[in-house]
Write a structure and sequence with these properties.
Domain Aldehyde dehydrogenase: 3-428
Largest sheet: 7 strands, mixed
Strand order of the largest sheet: 10-13-14-9-8-15-16
InterPro entries: Ald_DH/histidinol_DH, Ald_DH_C, Ald_DH_CS_CYS, Ald_DH_CS_GLU, Ald_DH_N, Aldehyde_DH_dom, Aldehyde_DH_NAD(P)
Structural class: alpha/beta
Radius of gyration: 25 Å
Number of strands: 18
Keywords: Oxidoreductase
Number of helices: 15
Helix content: 40-55%
Pfam family, one: Aldedh
Organism: Piscibacillus salipiscarius
Amino acid sequence: MSQFENLVQSQKEMFRAGKTMTYTYRIHQLQKLQEMLNRYEPRIYESLHKDLNKSTYEVLTTEFGFLQQEINYTIKYLREWMQPKKVKTPASHKGAKSLIYKQPYGVTLIISPWNYPLHLAIAPLIGAIAAGNTAIIKPSELTPYTSDLIEEMIKETFEEKYITVVQGGPEISQELLDQSLDYIFFTGSVPVGKIVMEKASKQLIPITLELGGKSPCIVDRDAKVEYAARRIVWGKFVNAGQTCVAPDYLLVHESIKEKLLNQIKTEIEKMYGSNPLQSGEYTKIVNDTHFDRLSQYLNEGHISVGGETDRTNRLINPTLIEQLDWDSKIMQDEIFGPLLPVMTFNELEEVYDHVEQSRNPLALYYFSENEKNQEWIVRNISFGGGCINDTMMHLGNNQLPFGGIGTSGIGKYHGKYSFETFTHEKSVLKQTTAFDLAFRYPNSKMGRKILKKLLK
């Protein structure tokens, strides 16, 4: 047996022993996870700063704080979620009871990305623990300080046969995907997501894919420009734009373009100063490869705001780029950086054609005071989730499922939806033995007549 075969086998044995099935055990593990995060909080801030130059504010709001909320919410409602759910039974099944039992899958694999390396490793883990699974976490090799810390924290807190961390590059992910797993949860790019899905299909392993895409931010003529600009700048440039649901491009009504762009420039200076490269608090690009890829986009169109770079420290100022079309390289793929292409429209129906150029985005944002137009956008355009008159804030509500559609992902999580993602709903009908309904059997004289009436 290989190293990973032994690991998966040990977790299967742990799972089959039934220890993870009880409410008491799951709650205790969630509490241990919470205590772990609190115990390591100073080092969490330190590792994320080393990997990505994340500020204390960004770590608190987008990584540490989110996880604390998620754990608290899960602990509060877990007993309720675990209960079998009784559902209605049709008259043709008289005497029977119908229930849905909540069954964990077993050994789960969580492959997390580098852009929110703590958040996107631990948030799915909360769901896996709550649902009664074991877990193998494969963090990103591109954020080594945080990945090392995650491994250290998990090793100190949990048994390896319950939860463990495996580090390495793409070849390690490939080996893990070849194992006899029960569920795979992947967050990352569309090309890698396709590889994960192909691997899972060979063993018919159920999966969740949290991917991305080109998320549009649409600002209509009647939008409140000051609020729109402030919320766009926050949503786009937090984590230097390295966010799967960041506004990927701006579609603004021609009549307010100049006003909006001027206000965006003002808001950038308010949040990051006149030169973010020198602030010391601005998130850096994860590595040289991504920095060079983003830098090439600066050769397209017309830069109206920003454009300055610092390759030594891998920093790129918040940048607006105009005079682009859908043939431009920057419009071909998800940008994943602090560059915001600007395009215009005159009629709302044009927006549909723009979004269809890169359809099924993970997120969509629409700024307008017109409720009729808001409804038109929501009902007519396909996207994973989003906001009206804001950006990214839907992620912070654990009552809302988070996930994509089509090329932006499969499945959903957050709050109760994380529990459901890692849970198989097992349908069970409990039939009475106090009597037997003769009409259900083929030799019943009145059976056909009764069944015809019942099944109408």
